[in-house]
Each structure stands twice: as structure tokens, then as C-alpha cells.
């Protein structure tokens, strides 16, 4: 009986270590999104970008993303927090991006957040409606 408790405790410790470990995505890329944005911006819909230029733009975006993530993490640890919140992201954007670009980025982020919240609240309402009709 004591050995089973020890095994459960060891299993719990292993699970806790797995949760605490940071997981990085290998070969993460924004290339598909860059192509989609290029086609959205283009009037003729036949715009293209060379592979070399696509890799350069992808590297620039990835570097910016890593800078913002690092700054947000530094703000989080300075405030003795363990959870990344909206405040840290906004502060990182303000610190890393110059003036008008930072304001525009914050407005677009707020707009994306509102769209996300509205989409999920609508989905929940739809699910509740389906549950009521089954009853």
C-alpha cells in the first residue's frame, strides 16, 4: 500500500515537471499568413513574392514576435507573476514599437480580441440553443 502511494507521488511529480517545461514549436513559420495577406492587399489577386523575399519577411516577423514575447516575459517576472496577461503584452508592444505603430498595433489587437470574444460567446449561445431543442 505504501509503495502504491509512492508511485502515485512520483507520477504526480513527473506530470508537474512536464507541465512546467516550456514547449517550443519547431519550424514555426508565418509564410502562409504572409501569402494570404499579400493576396488580400493585392487588387489583382495575382501578386506573388519570391521564396527568398518570403523567408526574409518571415524572419523579420519571427524576430519581432520573439522580442515582444521576451519583453512581456521580463515584465511578467519583474511583477512576480506566473501568468502572462493582456497588460504585459500591451506594455511590451508600447516599449518595443515606435509611437504611431504601437498605437495602431494596440487598436488592432483590441479589435481581434473583441472578435474572438464575440465569436466564442455566439458559439456558446448556439450550443445552449441546441441543448434546449433536444430536451
UniProtKB/TrEMBL annotation:
In terms of InterPro entries, this protein maps to:
H2A/H2B/H3 (IPR007125), Histone-fold (IPR009072), Histone_H2B (IPR000558)
A single MF term (Gene Ontology)? structural constituent of chromatin
Q: Which domain of life is it from?
A: Eukaryota
Q: Name one Pfam family in it.
A: Histone
Task: Give the range the annotation lists for the signal sequence.
Answer: none
Q: In the UniProt record, which is one GO cellular component term?
A: nucleosome
What SMART domains does the record point to? Answer: H2B (SM00427)
Tell me the ranges covered by the Core Histone H2A/H2B/H3 domain, including all copies. 17-93
Which family is it part of? Belongs to the histone H2B family.
List the protein's name: Core Histone H2A/H2B/H3 domain-containing protein
Amino acid at each position: 500500500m505504501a509503495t502504491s502511494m509512492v508511485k502515485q507521488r512520483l507520477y504526480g511529480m513527473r506530470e508537474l515537471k512536464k507541465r512546467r517545461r516550456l514547449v517550443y514549436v519547431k519550424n514555426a513559420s508565418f509564410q502562409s499568413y504572409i501569402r494570404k495577406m499579400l493576396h488580400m492587399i493585392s487588387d489583382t489577386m495575382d501578386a506573388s513574392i519570391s521564396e527568398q523575399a518570403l523567408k526574409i519577411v518571415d524572419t523579420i516577423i519571427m524576430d519581432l514576435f520573439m522580442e515582444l514575447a521576451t519583453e512581456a516575459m521580463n515584465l511578467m517576472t519583474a511583477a512576480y507573476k506566473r501568468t502572462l496577461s493582456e497588460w504585459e503584452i500591451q506594455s511590451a508592444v508600447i516599449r518595443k514599437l515606435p509611437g504611431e505603430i504601437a498605437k495602431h498595433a494596440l487598436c488592432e489587437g483590441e479589435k481581434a480580441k473583441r472578435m474572438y470574444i464575440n465569436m466564442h460567446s455566439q458559439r456558446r449561445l448556439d450550443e445552449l440553443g441546441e441543448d434546449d431543442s433536444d430536451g
